[in-house]
Design goal:
Two copies of one chain form a homodimer.
Chain A lengths: L3 H9 L3 H8 L3 H8 L9 H14 L5 H8 L4 E6 L6 H16 L3 E6 L5 H10 L4 E5 L6 H9 L4 E6 L7 E4 L3 H13 L4 E7 L5 H16 L6 E7 L3 H9 L1 H4 L3 E3 L3 H13 L9 E3 L5 H5 L6 E6 L5 H10 L7 E3 L1 E6 L5
Parallel strand pairs in A: 1-2, 1-3, 3-4, 4-5, 5-11, 6-7, 6-8, 8-9
Antiparallel strand pairs in A: 10-12
Helix pairs in contact in A: 2-3, 2-4, 6-15, 7-8, 9-10, 11-13
Chain lengths: 342, 342
């Protein structure tokens, strides 16, 4: 395409040299004033003149130029996950961004939908982040971690259900969610427990550790309880099919993966004449409002994020003191909320 | 803090000069090969040698250096909204990212939680994006648009319920959602229509145009229908309070903002002995699965995004031919789905 629009835009973008000229000061002075550097004595009048010139010209500093001068960036990269949204994690990310910004980092999210793992890692590395926080669902390999480190990242941290070799890990261990649901059902005297396994892409990352936790809780309970995985799509027809052969399965209870799958399955069971909880107890996870609005009210596993060690401060520490052994911090607490469905 | 970690990281980051040295070629050749530039004749053996050297050294290009050399970036900035997630919009953003990437743009999301509008715009401008797509909830002013343009953005586009003066607009006009619900209720013979107004932060951006659409539909219907706004928090106690004084309100129907508020209010009405739909018809919006699982099944307004003119191509066109008059494209189609609750 024509070079014209680019060139015209280029000459119209004000630089710090333009600000310096307009204010009648040096570029260094412009930099000191606009970065709020107070180690250098500059009069209030000059500071005001520089700020007015910058504002009048519409000047803002160039992050790329600054990071090239510094040889490193203050950019923390959060590769955006192309996963079904997990509200708990979203809230955490929002808080993490605010906390990192307070520590003077620039937080940038980078979508990787449509890229394979290698392409994604290379795209992130091109931005030269000083730290990368990769949420679950982004398949970070030891090789990918090495690409990031060699392009200047001081800290590579995963945030998700499982740690990745060679990276620091903020772990949202899903096993406790499945274990909590099963322990609750065992305490209620249930022994033949179904565990819903969503068939939607991306959810295996959560459903498999939940199933592992359920199996472990049953095995270590010495009750002889049996766990039966139940594949289910998030569709009424899939739930109706499962409900139609429910009695043949011989189950007395089900951990339904989360509150939304629980609502879907409970409706199908009720429509098929299976009584909840008399014939089958149902437990969800997530403690959504909808569970309280169902009849019977839905029992659930509530998840909370620990705040004992603020992760933003951990990231800052890892950036300032890189090279240590991988750290692991468990963030998730699971707690059963017993209502009427179990 | 000590300069040591930064310096050591600096010397360890491989540059294109290192790749050139290892492969025994010029830096220009490295650039041609790694950018897949086929206008220059380079033998397959040399291409292979450069790629192997780059891979062996863990080299990836530096986006900031490249954009400084080019005088502009290929970065499209999506300021991340700190809004309650809207699944429809999330899917759209995922598709938009993939499409822009195919057009060779780098898509970066920037969270602005905790920043005021001016701070946010300056933070975006520092990244020197070539285009900015600001979702609803980010309060873009004409002054903010000017800061972005003067820092090199060729196109500033809003994506949300309302256009902003001076920016191109991808409009998700919410008025049609409220109008569609009300027209459906009028056709069912209802004349005293409540409209739920969520009290949660950020939702006014959606609820106010939905109410405006509802009012307009009632006024232009020549039925003498009355619209009554109903403030509601997303809490059981708030819904119970509203249900307790329902009969005093004298309403025969309600547009409940969306399916989740509809579920909350319908449960409270049923618990208070108000029959749905006989005494009060209820319509939601969003066509969520949960509406189909309620009894009575929930009527709703389904929203769909038009794909007639792919917005990614529009952004590319605006970047290549900047300076035109603000464009406006309506993306949202609203369609009523009648079920049992109305």
């Amino acid at each position: 395409m024509s070079q014209l629009p680019e060139q015209s835009a280029r000459t119209s973008v004000p630089t710090s040299a333009d600000v310096a000229r307009a204010a009648g000061v040096s570029r260094a002075t412009v930099s000191y004033v606009l970065n709020d550097n107070t180690t250098v004595r500059i009069s209030d009048a000059t500071r005001r003149r520089v700020r007015e010139a910058a504002s009048g010209l519409g000047y803002v500093p160039h992050a790329a130029a600054r990071s090239l001068r510094a040889g490193h960036s203050r950019m923390v990269l959060l590769p955006a996950a192309h996963l079904p949204a997990v509200p708990l994690q979203q809230r955490f990310f929002t808080d993490l961004q605010s906390d990192l910004r307070r520590l003077d980092y620039t937080v940038v999210q980078y979508g990787s939908a449509g890229l394979d793992a290698d392409e994604a890692v290379r795209a992130w590395a091109e931005l030269r982040p000083v730290a990368v926080v990769a949420p679950g669902g982004v398949r970070l390999t030891p090789q990918g971690i090495s690409v990031l480190t060699r392009s200047g990242a001081k800290a590579v941290i995963t945030l998700g259900p499982q740690p990745v070799e060679g990276a620091h890990a903020l772990v949202l261990d899903q096993r406790g969610v499945g274990a909590g649901a099963v322990r609750h059902l065992l305490a209620r005297g249930r022994r033949r427990i179904g565990v819903v396994m969503p068939q939607e892409a991306g959810l295996a990352l959560f459903s498999e550790p939940r199933l592992a936790g359920a199996l472990h809780a049953a095995e270590t309970s010495a009750t002889g309880a049996r766990i039966q995985p139940l594949p289910l799509r998030y569709e009424e027809s899939s739930a109706a099919e499962l409900a139609a052969r429910w009695r043949a399965l011989g189950l007395d209870s089900v951990f339904a993966y989360d509150d939304e799958y629980a609502m879907l399955l409970m409706r199908a069971l009720q429509d098929a004449g299976v009584e909840v909880p008399a014939e089958t107890a149902v437990v969800g996870a997530g403690d959504l409002m909808l569970g309280r609005l169902l009849r019977p009210r839905l029992s659930t596993v509530r998840m909370e994020l620990a705040t004992a060690q603020p992760p933003a401060e951990m990231i800052d520490r890892l950036v300032r003191h890189p090279g240590g052994a991988p750290e692991r911090h468990d963030l998730l607490r699971a707690e059963t909320v017993a209502r009427e469905s179990s």
